[in-house]
Amino acid sequence: MARMGLVLFLLIWISACETTPVKKYSNLPEPLPLTEGQLVYEESGCVHCHGIQGDGEGFLSVGMVPRPTDFSNGNVMLLRSDSALTKAIRLGMPGTAMPSYRNFTDRQVRAVVGYLRSFAIVRE
């Protein structure tokens, strides 16, 4: 009987506890559809070096030194921040075949970064 009273007390006490509302961040950009990033990726020619699967095996990658980044390697992508990817897209990668895409809008860059992230598979 005492156990039932304790359980009832705990249930009433827990239900009376105030919950804090989830903090919403209004300054975060809205996620863009992956199809938008895919369109930019394909139409801009990223696919020719980085490949359809984002694995760096595009038809132009043959013989490239260094090889194009493998975006499908989740372990590599975990180390790459969105700002680092944005910088590489905007400025290119010196010493590689990666050109700069300064003409991309902020929205296009965000869309491509999101699309690149969709390739990532974490390998053990």
From TrEMBL:
Keywords, sorted A to Z: Heme, Iron, Metal-binding
Name the record gives this protein: Cytochrome c
Keyword Heme appears in the UniProt entry: yes
Top-rank taxon, per record: Bacteria
Iron found in the keyword field: yes
GO molecular function, one term: metal ion binding
Species per Swiss-Prot/TrEMBL record: Candidatus Nitrohelix vancouverensis
Alphabetical list of Pfam families matching this protein: Cytochrom_C
Segments forming domain Cytochrome c: 32-120
SUPFAM superfamilies, alphabetized: Cytochrome c (SSF46626)
InterPro entries: Cyt_c-like_dom, Cyt_c-like_dom_sf
